[in-house]
Automatic annotation (TrEMBL):
Protein name per its UniProtKB record: Probable peptidoglycan glycosyltransferase FtsW
A Pfam family recorded for this sequence: FTSW_RODA_SPOVE
Function: Peptidoglycan polymerase that is essential for cell division.
One of the record's GO cellular component terms: plasma membrane
Biochemical pathway: Cell wall biogenesis; peptidoglycan biosynthesis
Keywords for this protein: Cell cycle, Cell division, Cell membrane, Cell shape, Cell wall biogenesis/degradation, Glycosyltransferase, Membrane, Peptidoglycan synthesis, Transferase, Transmembrane, Transmembrane helix
Membrane topology recorded in Swiss-Prot or TrEMBL: Multi-pass membrane protein
InterPro entries tied to this protein: Cell_cycle_FtsW-rel_CS, FtsW, FtsW/RodA, SpoVE
Transmembrane portions of the chain: 12-31, 51-70, 82-101, 168-185, 192-209, 277-298, 310-331, 343-364
Name of the gene: spoVE
GO molecular function: lipid-linked peptidoglycan transporter activity; peptidoglycan glycosyltransferase activity
Source domain of life: Bacteria
Record localization: Cell membrane
EC number: 2.4.99.28
Length: 371
């Protein structure tokens, strides 16, 4: 029997357009959310465009990197997976050589205003490893000892290193994505139910054993009990969303960004979007992420091999899980965590690596089989 001829087709234009729209909105909203505090801060030399310049520069690098990965056959990543895993471990360990920021060690300072956050790489490295290994393992994935536990150990190791950096949110993303990829790969439902319980217990332990995380959790249940302390950020976020109403106050006219919400261009940028662009703007963002998830699932289903299916699933899951958690936190549906809104929140490392991963996803969408 003749093997099907594989050729590169056009990219998924809907997926590509969605990604570019999210990035464009992100750059605009980072400027809008950060301009006031940047103008009045000596750390930014009173430059209202300080964060816009950095985010715009990262967006340009990310777009170039995305087009590069769109052109490169995603199968070529396989042979570099082990090296990438080792380098990521080194980078995760290297953060401890740098001074802590707000009690957390998450960044490698590269000189000047530039830094690297290795945890942004780790979440995708786990996906690359699982896609490569599960394809080779085949039906043995249904085994608990040979199919499930090894992946939990590897993912748990990376999540543990990220957790040691005081970053429970990204560690949680890694483990949730691991469960999603295992389920899609054909793991037994009975095993998955047990795994979900174990991961949930680990998450509860991570909250209970750290007093500041426990304080965040209790403040989420009733933020008005401590409005000037642990509940402050959530209350200000809800005020921003409420002030925006349906149509919003207008781009650039947020009041909560004026030192009410700490660093509004980071994890709580969605609340500024709600204040300035209203329910309409928030709905647009949610729709864009739903479209991204939809096209990501379509790409995974239509991928020409198991490796492509699992890789597309993992990349889509990383973006989806982060978006869901961030929006849930900002709207008061979850305790406050440090998960950025993909493509939109300020952060060079996050934006660049998300766009590299998006390029891989688009490359998978290009490859189809023709008999």
């Amino acid at each position: 029997m003749n093997k099907p001829n594989v050729k590169m087709g056009p990219i998924d234009f809907v997926l590509f357009s969605t990604i570019m729209l999210l990035v464009a909105i992100g750059v605009i909203m980072v400027y809008s959310a950060s301009s006031y505090s940047a103008f009045f801060s000596s750390a930014t030399n009173h430059d209202s465009m300080y964060f816009l310049k950095k985010q715009g520069f990262s967006a340009i690098i990310g777009i170039v990197a995305m087009f590069f990965t769109i052109k490169i056959d995603y199968h070529k990543i396989k042979k570099h997976t082990k090296l990438a895993m080792i380098v990521t471990i080194i980078l995760l360990a290297a953060v401890f050589a740098f001074p802590a920021t707000n009690g957390a060690r998450r960044w490698i300072r590269l000189g000047g205003p530039f830094s690297l956050q290795p945890s942004e790489i780790a979440k995708y490295i786990v996906v690359l490893y699982m896609a490569k290994s599960i394809e080779r393992k085949g039906e043995r994935i249904k085994s608990l000892t040979h199919g499930i536990i090894p992946y939990l150990m590897v993912s748990g190791f990376y999540a543990g290193m990220v957790l040691a950096e005081k970053n429970l949110s990204i560690a949680s993303v890694i483990m949730i994505v691991t469960l999603i990829v295992l389920y899609v790969s054909g793991a037994k439902t009975s095993h998955m139910i047990g795994l979900v319980g174990i991961v949930a217990l680990a998450g509860v332990a991570g909250i209970v054993l750290e007093p500041y995380r426990m304080a965040r959790f209790t403040s989420f249940l009733d933020p008005w009990r401590d409005p000037k302390g642990d509940g402050y950020q959530l209350i200000q976020s809800l005020l921003a969303l409420g002030s925006g109403g349906i149509w919003g106050m207008g781009l650039g006219r947020s009041r909560q960004k004026c030192y009410y919400i700490p660093e509004p261009h980071n994890d709580f940028i969605f609340s500024i979007i709600g204040e300035e662009l209203g329910l309409i703007g928030c709905t647009l963002i949610v729709i864009l992420f739903i479209v991204f998830i939809w096209r990501g699932i379509v790409t995974a289903v239509k991928a020409k091999d198991t490796y492509g299916t699992l890789l597309a699933t993992g990349i889509t899951a990383v973006i989806a899980v982060q978006a869901i958690i961030n929006i849930a936190v900002v709207t008061g549906l979850m305790p406050v965590t440090g998960v950025p809104l993909p493509f939109i929140s300020y952060g060079g490392s996050s934006l660049i690596f998300n766009m590299v991963a998006a390029g891989v996803l688009l490359n998978i969408s290009r490859q189809k089989e023709y008999n």
